[in-house]
Design a protein that fits this description.
Elements lengths: L5 H35 L4 H8 L4 H13 L3 H10 L4 H18 L2
Length: 106
């Protein structure tokens, strides 16, 4: 077994911790999307993209609970819009959703 310096051990530990955190975030995003799909059917791609950009596990946990209790996908989008940190991602979602709505004649 090769010798591992203390600096290398620190680097390995940080890498493992980052990998664990990324796994937690990915699972939380997938769980949130699964709840929304179960309740409201196939999600528009911009909605999935907006959820995929969330980097805070606490925010994903709150959204997961809200996804269980909201009455509609529109209400969930409204909750996302209220979060100031997601204004840019949702602006893109809104533009695409309007295009889709107009194209589908809804």
């Amino acid at each position: 077994m090769p010798y591992v310096t203390s600096i290398e051990r620190i680097g390995l530990k940080k890498g493992i911790e980052q990998g664990i955190q990324q796994g937690i975030l990915r699972a939380a995003r997938e769980d949130l999307i699964e709840v929304l799909e179960t309740r409201f059917g196939e999600l528009p791609e911009p909605c999935v993209a907006a959820v995929s950009q969330i980097e805070e596990s606490a925010r994903l946990k709150v959204l997961h609970k809200q996804a269980i209790t909201v009455s509609s996908l529109d209400e969930f989008h409204r909750l996302l819009r209220e979060d100031a940190g997601w204004q840019q991602a949702l602006a893109s979602f809104d533009r695409r959703a309007r295009l889709c709505t107009n194209a589908c004649g809804l």
